[in-house]
Design a protein that fits this description.
The protein is mainly β and 452 residues long. 4% of the residues lie in helices and 46% in strands. It has two domains: 23-299, Beta-galactosidase, Chain A, domain 5 (Distorted Sandwich), CATH 2.70.98; 310-451, Immunoglobulin-like.
């Protein structure tokens, strides 16, 4: 990516907890893969792609195995991902077009003062989320949060829009971007399986084309929306040779309503990894929703965000037996007890899927029993018998201390499950057992009994 003569990074040391430094790229956060993101805060000049909350740059802090044109790899400290990424404006005539300074049709979110930070990371203890100040654009109050995890590899934007009026208002938000790769910009892939960005795509990947057989820039993923969301893309523009892609959303806010548009950025050393991580983020794994409140989850409109997991009050594994077989699938048998946590809406087998994960050492096993698969038997238990991904399962929830024939309000259950033909050969003690029932869940550690 060519460097701009007018572009610079102001590296400031944060002296106050919770207060973000001010200037282009001044707030710097490093994700779990070693990518450093430079977040723009307290911008004082007019700009489109480098406005408040945008990324002025993202680069690796160490050499990575970057893929080459010929299918090999070369160790390289990939850098210069952006010259300004994911700035944001409101389009007053509700068309999705390039945000422009000096154009009365666009108001760019910018010049909003010093940002703050929040949400200490589980690994680093450093605040992972930059909180930018509100800006009033007509009857709409707008603000942004930018999050970079220390236990995963991505950046996330939450863009908030609140209607302060007594009448409904339609809003069109547009992103503004400068990838800096000029005519060398190439679309690699998209969720629809082609190299064309379309309104139905959930993600698109790009990179700066090879110079000779290598490219010194990271391979990029742009995660735009989730399937089945109430608000989808209203416009999108990615083109080969154009390093200024944009996309936008149009939605109507009721009086007092707040809506959030959520986007993710992916930085990887290979095209395949950029596509894989982009696709993974569309599914909204737990790490993707860190530092989001229950209210914020309900306000996101371009993804269908699951409610937060309510932790079990107690979860104990009384016994876990694992039978290892060298030539055919192994087997396991788990006996456990759970008490649902405060705020749980109870166990509803016709709407709650059940996911069990066993991990230990380099081994892991996960199975998901779909919603509606459990049925109540004559003893008042909820049971499932069937084969999922080749593993034969028998599972049962038994209410404890409750009326077996009216168990839905029961907080205590015995949970038992057996599995045959599972891949368990790399699991070792201690074993972490993770159980999720709808939006209830928890984990416990047990010493398993191994039979060989």
């Amino acid at each position: 990516m060519p460097m701009r003569s007018f572009w610079y990074i102001a590296v400031l040391v944060l002296s106050l907890p919770g207060i973000a430094a001010a200037a282009t790229g001044s707030q710097q956060l490093i994700d779990a893969s070693g990518v450093k993101y430079f977040i723009d805060t307290n911008i004082t000049f007019s700009t489109s792609s480098s406005a408040s909350g945008a990324m002025s740059e993202a680069s690796y802090t160490h050499a990575v195995a970057a893929t080459t044109m010929n299918g090999g790899t070369v160790m390289s400290t990939l850098n210069d991902a952006y010259d300004g990424y994911n700035a944001m404006c409101i389009s007053h005539n509700n068309t999705v077009a390039t945000c422009e300074t000096g154009n009365a049709n666009f108001t760019i979110y910018n010049k909003n003062g010093v940002a703050t930070t929040e949400c200490p990371g589980p690994i680093s203890g450093v605040h992972r989320q930059v909180v930018l100040n509100p800006q009033t654009i007509g009857p709409i109050q707008v603000h942004r949060k930018v999050f970079v995890p220390d236990n995963d590899a991505f950046a996330r934007w939450l863009n908030y829009f609140t209607n302060t009026d007594t009448s409904p208002h339609t809003v069109t938000m547009v992103t503004s971007n400068n990838l800096g790769s000029d005519s060398n910009t190439r679309i690699v892939s998209s969720s629809n399986g082609n190299a064309t960005a379309e309104l139905t795509d959930t993600w698109v990947t790009t990179f700066q084309n090879y110079s000779g057989t290598t490219s010194s820039d990271p391979r990029l993923g742009h995660v735009l929306q989730g399937p089945g969301a109430p608000v989808g893309l209203a416009g999108i523009n990615f083109a080969n040779g154009d390093d200024n892609p944009f996309w936008g959303y149009t939605f109507t806010l009721a009086p007092g309503q707040t809506a959030i548009i959520m986007n993710f950025a992916v930085v990887q050393p290979s095209k395949a990894a950029a596509a894989a991580q982009s696709a993974a983020l569309v599914a909204l794994p737990a790490h993707a929703l860190q530092c989001m409140s229950a209210a914020e989850r309900t306000q996101v409109v371009n993804f269908v965000v699951p409610p937060p997991i309510i932790a079990f009050a107690t979860f104990t594994a009384q016994q876990l037996n694992i039978t290892l077989r060298p030539f055919i699938g192994s087997a396991f048998a788990l006996q456990s007890h759970i008490t649902l946590g405060a705020g749980s809406d109870g166990f509803a087998p016709w709407t709650d899927k059940v996911e069990l994960t066993l991990t230990g050492g380099a081994g892991a096993f996960t199975t998901t029993i779909p919603a509606g698969a459990f049925h109540r038997n004559s003893l008042g238990q909820f049971t499932f018998t069937g084969t999922i991904n080749g593993v034969q399962l028998n599972a049962a929830f038994t209410p404890l201390g409750c009326n077996l024939y009216a168990p839905l309000g029961c907080p205590d259950y015995k949970f038992e499950i057996t599995g045959n033909n599972a891949d368990l050969n790399r699991i070792v003690n201690p074993v972490t057992v993770k159980l999720t029932i709808g939006n209830d869940g928890g984990s416990t550690i047990v010493t398993a009994t191994f039979v060989r």
